[in-house]
Amino acid sequence: MKKVYSFLFIFVLVLMAACGDDNENTNESSEDNADNAELTPVKFALDWTPNTNHTGIYVAKEKGYFEEQGLDVEILLPGEVGVNQLLAAGKADFGVSYQEGLTQARSEGLPIVSVAAVIQHNTAGYASPVEKDITEPKDFEGKKFGAYGSDLEKAMMTTLMNNDGADVEEVDFITTGDSDFFVAVERDVDFSLVYYGWTGIEAELRGVDLNMVYLADYSDKLDFYTPILATSEDMIDADPETVKAFTAAAVKGYEFAIENPEEAAQVLIDAEPDLDPELVKRSQEWLSPRYQDDAERFGIQEQERWQKFADFLLDNEIIDEAVDVDKAFTNEFLPED
């Protein structure tokens, strides 16, 4: 009988200890929930598959910069609906956009606003394998161009070719959409428009030598901001403090990536393990110094460049009405030095 009582006594002690552990875990869980409840939820929409244009956002999330600003940021992967539409509809609070897309969106009545430039100068250019011998705009004549199928593509190429004394009508536009660049130039076309910081770096890793004809090298009208961080007028009007907090944390993330490209690349790799680690690392090394480039601080945007590109779109009938660029972007939420 004593053995039975002893067993029951021990069993009760174990049960009490277990209950104590459960209570402790419950308390910890409650504290975590309480902490999360104190953070403002924010949805951030990506424009494309995660890449080094987005590194600063991933760094800000992983390093706790958003939490420091009282934000709980959820990163939304791209879907069927574009970022500008998500922002305008209130389905996302912030996202990655482009000056060209945002300007067109505003001309159509979508009240989207850029709050920071991710890359200070346009790194887009026409890429072609070196054996195609395309080194300047006049070399586009007689060649096949892999296009998305937009009027803006032809307007941009026309500008470059006109400046080089060439005729855009001598270019064969082949709609390839989102086809793989390397497959397209091997099988269907001679050249296409890419961002060197990703596709160009991938070419290096593949051992494919490319010639690049950069838009910004041939026309200051085409040195537009791409990509940018954007939000909506509604968000700015309703909650400017959250806009300020988000922008401050995002800027801190990109500044970290500027100073620590290798570590920043690893943050992106850890968050998105399906990415090619070597591509991410090499891309980040190339792109980090170009985030701020020659600007006085990261994210700053110039009214003159917004105006030149808006005028370009209007002159080429890409948009039907003039856009007030002073409402299309703002530097007011960038943190001071």
Explain what this protein looks like in three dimensions.
The protein has 337 residues and is α/β, with parallel strands linked by helices. Helices cover 49% and strands 15% of the residues. It is built from 14 helices and ten strands. The protein has helices at 2-37, 55-62, 65-68, 83-89, 99-107, 151-163, 181-187, 196-206, 215-218, 233-238, 240-259, 261-271, 277-292, 303-315, and strands spanning 40-45, 71-76, 94-97, 112-117, 124-129, 144-147, 172-175, 191-195, 210-214, 228-232. Strands 2-1-3-10-4 form a five-stranded mixed β-sheet, with helices on both faces. Strands 7-6-8-5-9 form a five-stranded mixed β-sheet. α6 (151-163) links the parallel β6 (144-147) and β7 (172-175). The protein is globular, with a radius of gyration of 25 Å. The model is unreliable at 1-34 (pLDDT under 50).
Summarize the structure.
This protein has 337 residues and is of the alpha/beta class. It contains 14 helices and ten strands. The strands form two sheets. The protein has a five-stranded mixed β-sheet, sandwiched between helices. A five-stranded mixed β-sheet has the order 7-6-8-5-9.
